[in-house]
Each structure stands twice: as structure tokens, then as C-alpha cells.
Amino acid sequence: MNAVFTDSGYFIGRLDRHDFLHQRATTLAAKYDAQVTTEFVLLEVLNALSGAATPFANRGGPVVQSAPSSAQHHYLSVLNTLL
User: Fold this and answer.
1) By C-alpha distance, which of 70, 81, 83, 80 is closest to 36?
2) Which of 5, 12, 61, 80 is deepest in the core (most CB within 10 A)?
3) Is the dihedral of CA 81, 44, 21, 33 positive or negative?
4) Which residues of 3-33 are buried (b: 16+ CB within 10 A; e: fewer)?
5) What is the rounded CA–CA span in Å between residue 66 and residue 63?
6) Cα–chain-centroid distance for residue 29?
7) What's the rounded Cα separation, in Å, for the pair 20 and 9?
């Protein structure tokens, strides 16, 4: 498996074609078979995309905890260990 650790910049770049990291994130997605990330990164992405003033920003935890892993996306669970 050819995997890369992805941070919030990768996800935001993949989701927003106007983001300055969009082309780089698209290139990485094509180059690697799988992406590995943590719940902290996913929470950061949800927070960035929802806006800090919205109620959704404070409810990202359950969404991230239920995120499934797949052949192409691997989530390192750290919240249950730390909390």
C-alpha cells in the first residue's frame, strides 16, 4: 500500500477548487493509494468549513467518531484514548 498522512490542508484543498492547495491535493490523491489521518484533523476540517460561529462547529465530534475507514481512507482513532 502506498499511503500518505493527510492534514486539514489536504482535505480543504480537495473540497475547495478555489483553495491554493487544490492542485497539490489533487495531485497527491492521484499519486497515493490511501490517505491516513486522525480525528483531530477531521475536526479541524469540519471547524474550518462550518465557521467558528455556527452551532455545527461544536458538534463535530460525533460525526468524526462515526467516520468509517475504507481501503482508501484510514482514520487513526485517538479521541477515545485521550478522553
Assistant:
1) 70
2) 12
3) positive
4) eeebebbbbbbbeeeeeebeeebeebeeebe
5) 5
6) 13
7) 9
Q: Please report, as a single letter, which amino acid is at residue 66.
A: S
Amino acid symbol at 16: D
* pLDDT tens for the 83 residues of the chain, in order: 788 899 999 988 888 888 899 999 999 989 998 888 888 888 888 888 776 454 444 544 544 554 555 666 665 666 666 55
The three cell numbers locating residue 73: 481512507
| Contact yes or no for 77/39 (Cβ under 8 A) | yes
